[in-house]
Amino acid sequence: MEENIKKTTRRAFLSQTSMVAAGLTLGAQSVSAKSYSRILGSNDKIRVGFIGVGNRGTQVMHEFMNEADCEVAALCDVYEPYITRDRSQVDPRYIETRPRQIPQMGENFGKDVGRYADYRKLLEDKTIDAVYIGTPDHWHALQTIDSIEAGKDVLVEKPLTKSIHEGRAIIKAWEKSNQVAGVCLNRRGSGTYQRLAQEIPAGKIGKVTFALSSHVSNMAPNGIGKMKPEKPPKNFDWDMWLGPKPYRPYQYNIAPYMFRWWEEYDNQVLNNGVHSLDLIRWLLNEKAPVSVTTLGGKYVVDDDRTIPDTMQTIFEFPSGAIVSFTQLEGSSGSLVRQGFLEMRGTKGTLYAEGNNGYKIVSTSSGQFQTWDKLMADESYEVESAGNGKLSDGTYANPGANIVRNFLDCVKSREMPMVSLEEGHLSTNMAHLATISLQVQQTLKWDAEKEMITNCDEANKLLSYEYRKPWQL
Known about the structure:
Radius of gyration: 23 Å
GO molecular function: nucleotide binding
Largest sheet: 10 strands, mixed
CATH architecture of the largest domain: 2-Layer Sandwich
InterPro entries: Gfo/Idh/MocA-like_OxRdtase_N, Gfo/Idh/MocA_oxidrdct_glycsds, Gfo/Idh/MocA_OxRdtase_bact_C, NAD(P)-bd_dom_sf, TAT_signal
Structural class: alpha/beta
CATH class of the largest domain: Alpha Beta
CATH superfamily of the largest domain: Dihydrodipicolinate Reductase, domain 2
Distance between the termini: 33 Å
Helix content: 25-40%
Mean pLDDT: 91
Protein name: Gfo/Idh/MocA family oxidoreductase
Strand order of the largest sheet: 14-13-12-11-7-10-9-8-17-18
Strand content: 15-25%
Domain Gfo/Idh/MocA-like oxidoreductase N-terminal: 46-182
Domain Gfo/Idh/MocA-like oxidoreductase bacterial type C-terminal: 223-293, 402-471
Low-confidence stretches: 1-37
């Protein structure tokens, strides 16, 4: 009976919207896909395996560790010091060039925590209830699907995918399962934006016709630098890091972390922009744009990057709203008058200043109008209760709320705060922005068929061929 209710809820929602490193494996047990499902009681600890425990993976793992009903069951990474949590073994060049992105580590997990270099071995452990995936973007689809098919609940880091077709493949795998799965699009964990997501579509600032957000970081002149291929550190499994992507020699300015400036593995509209694009789509209560136009290129930063340092994308939505996202990595200063997001309506303009506050400024009358104000100015700030908590008992850090919600959903079997479908739709916006730039053309997007209607060349970029033996 419970399963039938769950399946009905799911249908209703959708209608709306290498080998293990030697000496590092502990307690792996073989289990066929979906053959095991541990029943959780209200007082049970949820055993979570962490796939990818570098910079972002460590941050989110610590958020899980703050929850009393979570137990770290296993760690997996292609870089051995991340598995052993020994920073003294990290290549000195990494610490010198990206000290903020190399986790401090040193956690005392004990011998009972599994340690894996191959995520597939982690998935064989039938005592693990759920996994968090914090690997580079090009791994998200395969690891999410494999985790679902192994009977694990999944929380996957943004962006959900590296291609549009990967997202639909993930959702199809999930539809066949009984698993809980969500995406770390953290702004949805903010009570401020949950409130605005109700009020803006209801007309709080009138009809919204324009929204603006940006990512600005002056990386001129040297960016990520220029380097030649060389051998990776001996404790870094470069072939496994590449996974489904074509083989290429290792470079120190690709991994760890700097892959975000290489189109093969990531880009900045996926890495940073997807947060704003998801928030805007959510506040507009829109499914997808109908038109996407991107201009830009590598104009100023002299480095090895394969993504633009200057880029602007214009999205047009069915409601008539125009959305602009700009990426500038050769200058500084915000494009938004206040905060990081500006949303203009006929009655007022919203300025999102952070996760816990915003301002709304009334519009002024234009030509031939006799009215003074159509709404009152408004300022909103959430009151903190201390210790990282807000007055309503939630966390000031919206990412921590995403984690808490996911753990609750593992127990209740309800839909997480950010579903795979929502993650897919927002990630598609970033993909379409990239494809428009690659083909140098405005794209017309059919969101129902998930295809571009005016450019065959662009449709070929909705997916990519996996390197053998990996397959989707």
